[in-house]
UniProtKB/TrEMBL annotation:
UniProt KW keywords: Amino-acid biosynthesis, Arginine biosynthesis, ATP-binding, Glutamine amidotransferase, Ligase, Nucleotide-binding, Pyrimidine biosynthesis
Lineage top rank: taxon: Bacteria
Residue ranges of the region described as CPSase: 1-178
Protein's UniProt name: Carbamoyl phosphate synthase small chain
Organism annotation: Candidatus Gottesmanbacteria bacterium GW2011_GWB1_43_11
């Protein structure tokens, strides 16, 4: 287009893709990943699990229903976003829509990224980019204002662990009398998880990733470990806390990163997937019932099911690639799942997991 400002996506393998700049005008660095979701970009971009990454959307039209106004359900709890800010380093799209159409639209996609100081590039062949990432695996990338090739020898992606977890203890009360009190280990929790727990009439006490909930002055009836970004083996403090929790009789549930951290805490191993699972339509089979569910996922690592100890069994399996999606203790109230049972964005087919947690 005449007069457009060019933006370039550089990949670690030497690929350089040219497009049109939108959003903020700064340059940025991150791990380039892709998501197959057709909707839910406000939720995806505010998901802390995407921290440190440049997100490519495979759906060709982004921004077509705009961005809603921020609405709080409670203090420190948003009703329509997954956190208070955008966490991705940058955005790559095929086409970004300048004139959205939706009754709840409050801002355009472009203006939202500008406000949040997040750069984006549009007009990129996202199909070719996604095929490249599928064949070679996710890799470092950089959004720049110049097409001149860069050196990757001294380039490293930003750290994310301490940035995504709230550093205070926060309590949330459901409508009506709380049925139980749940401690939530915040490794970058999506607000959708908190909203889902409140719908189950739990009082939720959100604690930082490096705080042992057993040290709370208030008695808790169970512990949930949240989603979060990065390599689970970097979260050593949280793994040690989970090991301490497992010495008690408290029910424990891990979600996404929390699933991987539970696996490490019990002596199993994790590994990096070539390009991860990021989207809203991942099919998973519940081995115990032989029922399949469509799930929302956002992760780049997986649990090696061959390393599970004998007192744990595989619970869910991914029907696309056979990777592990959940584990359960054979006797104790301990379980975890790789997918997001709260959806946000995505289906709510597996939200029954939160009710099952209460039954434990």
């Amino acid at each position: 287009m005449p007069g457009m400002t060019k933006k370039y996506l550089h990949l670690e393998d030497g690929t350089v893709l040219e497009g049109e700049a939108f959003g903020a005008n700064n340059e940025t660095l991150g791990e380039v990943v892709f998501s197959t979701g057709m909707t839910g970009y406000p939720e995806s971009l505010t998901d802390p699990s995407f921290a440190g990454q440049i997100l490519t959307f495979t759906y060709p039209l982004l921004g077509n229903y705009g961005v809603p106004k921020v609405v709080y359900q409670d203090k420190h709890l948003l009703k329509n976003f997954e956190s208070e800010r955008i966490w991705v380093q940058g955005v790559v799209v095929g086409t970004q829509i300048e004139y959205p159409s939706h009754h709840a639209s409050f801002a355009t996609f472009d203006n939202w990224l500008k406000q949040q100081k997040i750069p984006g590039v549009t007009g990129v062949d996202t199909r070719a980019l996604t095929l490249n990432l599928r064949e070679k695996g996710v890799m470092k990338g950089k959004l720049t204002n110049s097409g001149q090739k860069i050196s990757w020898k001294t380039v490293d992606t930003p750290g994310t662990i301490k940035k995504v977890s709230h550093n205070q203890i926060i309590s949330y009360l459901p409508k009506g009398k709380p049925a139980r009190t749940i401690a939530l280990l915040d490794c970058g929790v999506k607000h959708g998880i908190i909203r889902a727990l409140l719908r189950q009439q739990y009082k939720v006490i959100r604690v930082p990733y490096d705080f042992d909930p057993l040290k709370l002055s208030e008695r808790v009836d169970g512990v949930v470990c949240s989603n979060g970004p990065g390599d689970p083996k970097d979260w050593t403090e949280t793994v040690a806390i989970i090991q301490n929790i497992l010495k008690t009789d408290l029910p424990f549930v891990g979600i996404c990163l929390g699933h991987q951290l539970l696996a490490l805490a019990i002596g199993a191993d994790t590994y990096k997937l070539p390009y991860g699972h990021r989207g809203l339509n991942q099919p998973c089979l519940d081995i115990s019932t032989n029922k399949a569910y469509i799930t929302s996922q956002n992760h780049g690592y997986a649990v090696n099911k061959k390393t599970l100890p004998q007192d744990f069994s595989e619970w869910f399996v991914n029907l696309n690639d056979g990777t592990n999606e959940g584990i359960k203790h054979k006797k104790k109230p301990i379980m975890s799942m790789q997918f997001h049972p709260e959806g946000c964005p995505g289906p709510f087919d597996t939200e029954w997991v939160f009710g099952m947690f209460g039954e434990l």
